[in-house]
Amino acid sequence: MSRPKALITVAVLLLTLNLVHAIVSEVTWENHSKASSALIESIGFSGLTVSSECTATRNPILEPTCACLGDLPGGYCYHLSCGIVGIPVVEEQLDQIEVIDQ
Amino acid sequence: MKNRSRRFQEHINFLNYAMDSIFTYKARSIAIVFSLMIALMVLGSIAFISDGLTKEAESSANFAPDITIQYLQAGRQVAIPMEYAQQISQISYVSKVVPRVWGYIYYHNRIYTVMGIDAVKMPIPKDIGFVMVSGKFLQPNDNQTAVVGNYLAKVFDLETNDILVLYDQSQQPHNFTVNGIFSMDVNLYTSDLILINLNDSRNFFNVSAEEATDLCVYVEDQTQTRYVAQQIAQSSPDARVLTREALKDALVTTYGARSGFVSVVWYILLLSVILVAWNQASAVSEEAREEVGILKALGFSTSNILEIRLLEALILGFISASSGIFLSVLYDFYLGAPVIRDFMLGWAAVYPSFPLPILISFSTMLTLYAVALFPLFVGSLIPAWKSAITEPDIAMRGS
């Protein structure tokens, strides 16, 4: 196979792989939302447990990844020095969970 | 017809020549493909995660209550008096008002969410069992029982029927039997969640029966949601009225790549690639000038040479974009986006741990291809034009 033909083959192969991944992803998302919808309907609304709210919220660079809705359940902050729904930074907070195996 | 076929063949020949040129100027081609590929990989990885988060947040908001009411004091959310629920339920078109009591508890300086719902009044669908990996969802008559998230169950090695002891703010223990564990499918919402009945939650958080954390309002006619929201806002100016649409807008803004980090990375990478393309195209232009002279002497026009150069840019851009996007798919989808994943999940205290939602959408993919091709065209156009307009005798003499 000549080099130009090899180049075209690789490019087409990569494009096909990318498109296949996009199709799989889109189809998976269509079905995925059914589980989320049943849960959200049952408990009301709950925030995603991923982002954080802190002084970075006012930082235009970090805003999209750090901003959140702190007044929603699960919308708390992971940032250690945050004072909004903060994890205490002065002293250790007492643990509030224990498990008794049955 | 014959003329058209000849023209088509001419363009094919230019394409073949452009592909040969890519191998002739190897150093330039590698520099452009490598820089663009890395740029696209980083950009694609962030864009796919950002799309996933936005899509997840947006689709979840579609199933939120029509209106969520919170009570504000000094600009902060505090418990809402239950008399508001009675007032709101009297507004026309309001179907029902359901209180929730929720809050946070700590374990090893990490926060977990305890949420109390009214299992009788909440619109729990019949297929709720699909979101459980074991046990069952909260039942109306269950007392001192809890349904917990999959991640939380793994952290505490919890199984159904285990006893979960939660200590309230005054360190008094409250025992809950684990009746169910949510599946991984809803981990993004439930990884830190302990779901209990409303009365148990009131008891645990010491919230009286006259108060709730927030109110879920359901409207009979969806078209009247705005009217109902306006009525609530007018009658209760100290309430925060969150319609489903407002919630969706806020979430999309929060998780979207509208501004900030993603955009900044995007612009920096775009600029870098334009500079690389410009630099490389200019560097080879001296070498290519002689080639242009020969081509022109053989009868190639300026537009023919420009077409060849732009086809080169197109092919390089296409290969760079395809390989960059493919690497970002591998990085996000199969490797779980290490480093970027930690950054997107949290800050100094990275928690919890679960796969990020990743959406590889056609629109983002098209945008990434466009982003790869645009800077190459811009970066190659002027050097290509300068090279193409050179007179053949000057080009061949090299002066």
Blueprint of the fold:
The complex is a heterodimer of chains A (102) and B (399).
Chain A: H1 3-43, H2 63-66, E1 97-100
Chain B: H1 2-24, H2 26-61, E1 67-73, E2 76-78, E3 80-81, H3 83-89, E4 94-107, E5 110-117, E6 132-135, E7 145-148, H4 150-155, E8 163-167, E9 173-182, H5 187-190, E10 193-197, H6 198-205, E11 211-212, E12 214-219, H7 225-235, E13 239-243, H8 244-255, H9 261-297, H10 302-334, H11 340-345, H12 362-388, H13 392-397
Parallel strand pairs in B: 5-10, 7-9
Antiparallel strand pairs in B: 1-2, 1-12, 1-13, 3-11, 4-5, 4-12, 6-9, 7-10, 8-9
Helix pairs in contact in B: 1-10, 2-8, 2-9, 2-10, 2-12, 9-12, 10-12
Explain how this protein is built:
The complex is a heterodimer of chains A (102) and B (399). Chain A is mostly helical and 102 residues long. Chain A folds into two domains: 1-44; 45-90, no CATH class. Chain A has helices spanning 3-43, 63-66; one strand at 97-100. The longest helix of chain A is centred in the N-terminal third of the chain and has 41 residues, at 3-43. Chain B folds into two domains: 2-59 and 257-397, no CATH class; 94-219, no CATH class. Chain B starts with a helix and ends with a helix. The radius of gyration of chain B is 31 Å and the shape is elongated. Chain B is built from 13 helices and 13 strands. In chain B, the strands form two sheets. In chain B, strands 1, 2, 4, 5, 6, 7, 8, 9, 10, 12 and 13 form an eleven-stranded mixed beta sheet that branches. Chain B has a two-stranded antiparallel ribbon with strand order 3-11. Chain B has helices at 2-24, 26-61, 83-89, 150-155, 187-190, 198-205, 225-235, 244-255, 261-297, 302-334, 340-345, 362-388, 392-397; strands at 67-73, 76-78, 80-81, 94-107, 110-117, 132-135, 145-148, 163-167, 173-182, 193-197, 211-212, 214-219, 239-243. In chain B, a hairpin with a 5-residue loop joins strand 8 and strand 9. Chain B has 399 residues and is of the alpha+beta class. In chain B, 54% of the residues lie in helices and 19% in strands. The chains are: A mainly alpha (102), B alpha+beta (399). Chains A and B meet through helix 1, helix 2 and strand 1 of A and helix 1, helix 2, strand 4, strand 5 and strand 8 of B.
